[in-house]
Amino acid sequence: MSGNKSNAKGALLALIAMGIYATHDVVIKTLGTHMTAFQIVFFAALLSFPVVSVILLNEKREGNLRPRHPWWMVARTVCTVVTGVSAFYAFSKLPLAQVYAILFAAPLLITILSIPILGESVGLHRWGAVILGLIGVLIVLRPGQADLEVGHAAALISAICGATASVIVRKIGAEERSVVLLLYPMVANFLFMGAALPFVYVPMALSDLGLLAVIAVFGLTASFLIIMAYRAGEAAVVAPMQYSQIIWATIYGWFLFGEKLDLATIIGAGTIIASGMYIVFRESRGSVSENQPVLSTRGRNETVTSPRSSILQRLLPPVGRGAK
User: What residue ranges do the domains of the chain occupy?
Assistant: First the structure.
């Protein structure tokens, strides 16, 4: 397959994955009207576990389940758990487009965090993009002009913790077993969400259980499509497709929840997306970035229903073109 056709296939697969992710988030928002994020995360994790367990069995690398970098693993696990529950809460409380606009700040935060954690050298071009993107976040939040809710804080926390978890994986991923990287956050979700469940549990109808299953299936399906996308196309082409979620958010928000995009969200989201795409462009130039922390993230911030795609890719058998 020629390069252009491979890239087109990769971009198309990523677009489909982002549409599925957006639908996944709509279901979270629907369930969030009558149950807490803790309950949603717990049952979504429970329903995702059988499929992920089968994937984990593909781990051929010998060794035990003891991490080689225990403190980094603790930090990653905590960040991953907080990322998921914060994102789920934000989706249940805020307009979809606002949540995405804030979560899109993750590449900016990854760029910043890669300096102390990975020793990445960030030049003026990427620093300028980071500053511009953070200005975009302020435009979306409008401090002093609009009421800031807990949901806004949750979305910011999710972006920060998700970026931190991604950079940590970039630092230790080559030395840790994939099964360890996936299993620890999953078990932590069961333990922490399960501990909170008795205090927040509300009875669920059969339809609620079905929607929780949809969250689990959609999250994993989108993750697999992301893997296929990066195997088919170049990272610099596939990565920007994540921003298509804002289109889905606008459509879903308008028709299902009566949400309307205001000018500040449009301008702020556009600024964040432009800065994020510029960072991807800069990292794709081999002489600019040694670690390529944003390009290596490959997909959305990791949650219990959307395991990190780069880790899953190591566990799945290669098919077609392999992505680095």
Answer: 3-315
